[in-house]
Write a structure and sequence with these properties.
Layout: E1 2-3, E2 5-13, E3 19-25, E4 31-37, E5 40-46, E6 59-63, E7 73-80, E8 83-88, E9 91-96, E10 104-105, E11 111-112, H1 121-124, E12 132-138, E13 141-142, H2 143-148, E14 204-210, E15 216-223, E16 226-233, E17 240-244
Antiparallel strand pairs: 1-10, 2-7, 2-12, 3-4, 3-11, 4-5, 5-6, 7-8, 8-9, 12-13, 14-15, 15-16, 16-17
InterPro entries: ConA-like_dom_sf, Laminin_G, Neurexin-related_CASP
Organism: Falcunculus frontatus (Eastern shriketit)
Domain Laminin G: 1-164
């Protein structure tokens, strides 16, 4: 395909922070890749190689954050030549691509949910998308419906299921005064705890526990947006260990 205008839209939800949402490339150095990186949305676009080299045509735009929250997010990409509107959850960002070309030449297949291994260093370092997509529309073609009815030719659909599995997790919401207290495990040499959390607050206590027999305590908190672990031990000379990340 050689297009002057493109409209691509879809919805997705995932609990993964990395993954290729869609990818297309051509023999003239053209490519378009939409992916999640560190739970942000990144659009990479190149409308072709000029005489100075492809780096001058490469354009990368990042938008959004915390998109791995397993909630639905909507994306619309509208391109007219070098002018792009990228809309994420109704927030639109306008930009112009670098380079000197207006047409997008995609000679190979467009892939949704990942990119085929091409042997290039860029392809094997990228993760495929893991999650749910719906309402995939590419230049007026309802890709989701075509895939479900097996009307895509050629296609390599792989192991797709046309339903969205919900994760088996139960979240707990804490306000500024609530906390959850669980019984300890005395006579255990090992203290082990793991959890996922999300907050907009830069400070807060995540976990606190006293050790048995007045041997000290452990505290995990957020301080100015950084997670800190404090271990106090009463019976040794160096009685405090602080770890910050």
């Amino acid at each position: 395909m050689k297009t002057l205008k493109d409209v691509i839209s879809l919805k997705f939800k995932t609990s993964e922070s990395e993954g290729v949402i869609f990818h297309g490339e051509g023999q003239q150095g053209d490519y378009i890749t939409l992916e999640l990186k560190k739970a942000k949305l990144v659009l990479n676009l190149n409308l072709g190689i000029n005489q100075l080299g492809s780096i001058f045509g490469h354009t990368s735009v990042t938008t959004g954050s915390l998109l791995d929250d397993h909630h639905w997010h909507s994306i619309v990409i509208e391109r007219h030549g070098r002018n792009i509107n990228l809309t994420l959850d109704r927030h639109m960002q306008h930009f112009r691509t670098n380079g000197e070309f207006d047409y997008l030449d995609l000679d190979y297949e467009i892939t949704f949910g990942g990119m085929p291994f091409s042997g290039k260093p860029s392809s094997n370092s990228r993760k495929n998308f893991k999650g749910c997509m719906e309402s995939i529309n590419y230049n007026g073609n309802n890709i989701t419906d075509l895939a479900k009815r097996k009307k895509l030719e050629p296609s390599n659909v792989g192991n797709l299921s046309f339903s969205c599995v919900e994760p088996h997790t139960v979240p707990v919401f804490f306000n500024a005064t609530s906390y959850l207290e669980v019984p300890g495990r005395p006579s255990q040499d090992l203290f082990s705890v793991s959890f996922l959390f999300r907050t907009w607050n830069p400070n807060g206590l995540l976990l606190f526990s006293n050790f048995a027999d007045d041997l000290g305590n452990v505290e995990i908190d957020i301080n100015e947006g950084k997670v800190s672990v404090h271990i106090n031990v009463t019976q040794v000379k160096k009685n405090r260990i602080d770890i910050s990340s």
